[in-house]
Amino acid sequence: MPSIVDRNEQRYVGYRATVGFDGMAEVAHRIAAIVGALAERGLEPACAPFFRYLVLGTDMETVTVEVGVPVTDAVDLGDEYFNAVLPAGKYAQATHHGAPSGLFAATADLLAWGEKEDVRWDRTVEADGEHWTARLEIYRTNPQAEPDPNNWDTDLCFRLAD
């Protein structure tokens, strides 16, 4: 069952791309690259990595996304990567237990719950699609520690309008 939670702002190192849904795996591989670059500098992630959906194209064939790895302090990982901050605020949160293939249905369930509860999402609809301030998939399970995707936990956290 979804709930409303307060989240503090969270600094992260990220990578952004606009891709078709078939390009999401390539973007996801950037999480490991960021974690590896942090490790080379003797740093560890501050908490679980995430996908941040920024723009869902009107054609639903393209999406602008970021992958992010939370950090305590800004760190320079080179030109491909940037430092940013997830905004504090109230978020609707639900946890999906299982393989990533179930995230589409879990997201639909969270959005349907929000509609039923008259939740106002922090998003705008523009000519090129839906623009979200913070629509997150937070990957709480480390695949190296738990290789079976059926045992993975992913938090869906969507920021509410102020």
From TrEMBL:
Coiled-coil region(s): none
Fetch the Gene3D superfamilies from UniProt: Regulatory factor, effector binding domain
Source species: Amycolatopsis halotolerans
Name the source's superkingdom: Bacteria
Q: Where is the AraC effector-binding domain?
A: 1-161
InterPro entries given for it?
AraC_E-bd (IPR010499), GyrI-like (IPR029442), Reg_factor_effector_dom_sf (IPR011256)
Phylogenetic placement of the source organism: Bacteria, Bacillati, Actinomycetota, Actinomycetes, Pseudonocardiales
Protein name, UniProt field:
GyrI-like domain-containing protein
Could you tell me which SUPFAM superfamilies the record lists for this protein?
Answer: Probable bacterial effector-binding domain
